[in-house]
Amino acid sequence: MEEEEELEVTSAPVATAKEHASPAISYRFPTPRIASSSRVRRPAVPNVHESSRKLISRGVTRFVLGVSSYIDGKLLKRCSGFVIDWDENTRSGTVFTSAHLICSTSPWDEWSGSGQHEYAPDAEVRVHLGEEIAVRGQLVYYNRHYGFALIGVHMDQPPALLACFSSEEVRYAQDVFVLGRDGRFLLQLSNGKVNCRGPSLYTRYHYMYITGGEVLECCTGGPVVDFDGVVMGMKSYDGFVSCSIINKCLHLWRRFGCIHRLHLGLKLSAIKSLGISAQTEKIYLMSDIVDTGLIVEDVSAGSVAEKHGVGKGDIVKSLNGRCVDTTAALESMLLGMCVDRFDNGHDLDSSMDVTLGMFFTSGSVHGTMKFTVNASNDVEVFARRTYNVSDDQDLSTSSSMSPDEASEDDIW
């Protein structure tokens, strides 16, 4: 056996007087040995520049087009889009883009019934196939809730490549590119990571977000792709809509010509978007919940959730037995319920039973709540609650029931 290498450390004398000086003391420590197998291996950092060049060389950017809209000959919006379908018989393609293209007025609160988006479906739409090539497009469909539009366009030649939506879920911290075209049909490309932050209380909760490079407004409606060029979503004016939701929307539209969804009447935020904070610890100490669940930020007046006692500050833990950790995941699950039910032959306007696993903060109790929700093709409008305040009443009084006041049919 080889002798261990020794390291000699000699301490300096500590006495202040010659007669009290102590002899030097020697310590011997074995030199630590690190096995080669225990070395820390860090994952390879993706090469952004190399990956962006591959997108171009593989022809991925060729399905990215420019789209613009006009009212009375005046430019309304300039966005981007991408080809998702091609019909050989009619020589026409389908361009997926943002409904922002035909939006004339955008409210600051998307949930407000008095300030809804105003759209101009009769606006002239042009699809830019090249730097000097623009053809008239036809608005086929647009969805006000999810904010996307489908444009039909005649093309002499089939597209070199059709966009392919991923069948996998978008991952947080995933590296992605946002692609688009500017007014001169020049490619615009930015790189970033999918962020775990959630939408604000004034935007729909199906949005996801990207942090990183600046994204120009002309890229709105363009594809969000991974480093292999697979489409992970569509860039919206605020954030992006994931492929998981888009795939379900297209399935419903292609089969039924409309997109029905369930209206819960809740504004929610994800616990995981709080990060490490005092609020996260408080929630954990109170409910033993740390990384999943959605906080109820507000409840729509007159909604089924309000009638069943759901109040601000409560936590939605699960939907039909499945844990929920983000608002986008909840939206995808609700859409999935509609897809499964309608594919099995049920009417589009039929109601569905929903089971929510809950933590009620007012009583600090866990429970399960089951109620019936209607599917609707309309935009979900959030109704604000009103309070009749007298001299004997406090402004903080809530109109919702506590879990202790609910009937046996409500629970639990």
Provide an overview of this structure.
The protein has 412 residues and is mainly β. It folds into two domains: 49-259, Thrombin, subunit H, CATH 2.40.10; 261-388 and 396-410, PDZ domain (Pdz3 Domain, Roll), CATH 2.30.42.10. Helix content is 13%, strand content 35%. It has five helices and 23 strands. The protein has helices at 48-57, 243-256, 278-287, 304-307, 327-343; strands spanning 6-10, 26-30, 64-71, 74-87, 92-98, 103-105, 118-119, 124-130, 133-143, 148-154, 175-181, 187-195, 207-212, 223-225, 231-235, 240-242, 261-262, 266-270, 294-299, 315-319, 322-323, 351-360, 365-376. The strands form five sheets. Strands 17, 18, 19, 20, 21, 22 and 23 form a seven-stranded antiparallel β-sheet that branches. A six-stranded antiparallel β-barrel has the order 3-4-5-10-9-8. Helix 2 runs parallel beside helix 5 (327-343). The chain is globular. It starts with 5 loop residues before the first strand and ends in a 36-residue tail after the last strand. The model is unreliable at 1-42 and 389-412 (pLDDT under 50).
